[in-house]
Design a protein that fits this description.
Helix 3 links the parallel strand 2 and strand 3. 31% of the residues lie in helices and 23% in strands. It holds the Pfam family Methyltransf_23.
């Protein structure tokens, strides 16, 4: 079963990261989140690519067996900006004790309901990540999230504060390039592949900028991998960072 939990706020927040308008935008999408042909269709296409990168990073970080079905058994995982649980559920199936946090209560409610139907025990909660007294985790993920937060420095610091000393962090986000402006906003939102208003190009962050924020938080960023698109391959991992990229980070 899933476990939607209310927790007591702590006093560790260095700054508020939630934008109410962003939370409201994604909250309105909650009912369609698990529909692979609905408003979150692009996330369904993106998720296998992110999971491929994540699985490799997990195996390299903990020295696991590539063939192991549950490489996260005995480990805890936190997914921040979890939406309705598209990443939380695969992490649970990989063996992790999973917590999902999102800014929109509508999303965590939908996530809890879906996890319960799938027979998965996942703790979900809504709120400001820096205000939640939830301890530390072996794995912390934030996929397609940092471009939506109000205070990126405070957000990265809050993620770092939730990471265990020998833990692994994985983040993905659009890059701020002319290509991403044309394709991810102009084309993707213009043709209805992504709901209008999902992205604001000025909020995209470059790998160099993200690396600096991670360093300030006491983390070392790994080599970024691009998430690119080709008509014959669809979304795939690539050396091309111009649209979107995914990175690991570890405590120094």
């Amino acid at each position: 079963m899933s476990d939607a939990t209310t927790v007591t706020p702590s006093n560790t927040s260095g700054g508020q990261t939630i934008r109410p308008d962003e939370a409201a935008h994604f909250g309105k999408l909650a009912k369609d989140w698990w529909d692979p042909k609905g408003s979150s269709a692009m996330l369904h296409r993106l998720n296998p690519v992110r999971l491929g990168f994540l699985r490799e990073a997990i195996d390299l970080h903990w020295g696991g067996e590539i063939e192991a079905r549950r490489p996260l058994a005995g480990k805890s995982a936190l997914d921040v900006g979890c939406g309705a649980g598209l990443l939380c559920e695969p992490l649970a199936r990989l063996g992790a004790d999973v917590t999902g946090v999102d800014a929109a209560p509508e999303n965590t409610a939908a996530a809890a309901l879906h996890a319960e139907g799938a027979g998965l025990h996942i703790r979900y909660m809504a709120g400001e990540i820096g205000d939640l007294d939830i301890g530390r985790f072996d794995l912390v993920t934030a996929m397609e999230v940092i471009e939506h937060v109000a205070d990126k420095r405070a957000f990265v610091a809050a993620l770092a504060a939730r990471l265990a000393p020998d833990g692994l962090m994985v983040l993905s986000t659009p890059n701020r390039t002319p290509q991403s402006r044309v394709l991810m906003i102009g084309a993707a939102e213009g043709f209805g592949l992504i709901p209008k208003g999902t992205h604001h190009w000025d909020d995209f962050i470059t790998p160099e900028e993200l690396g600096e924020l991670l360093a300030e938080a006491g983390l070392t960023m790994g080599e970024p991998r691009g998430i690119a698109f080709r008509p014959d391959k669809g979304l795939h991992l690539s050396a091309d960072l111009s649209l979107n990229y995914v990175v690991t980070a570890r405590p120094v």
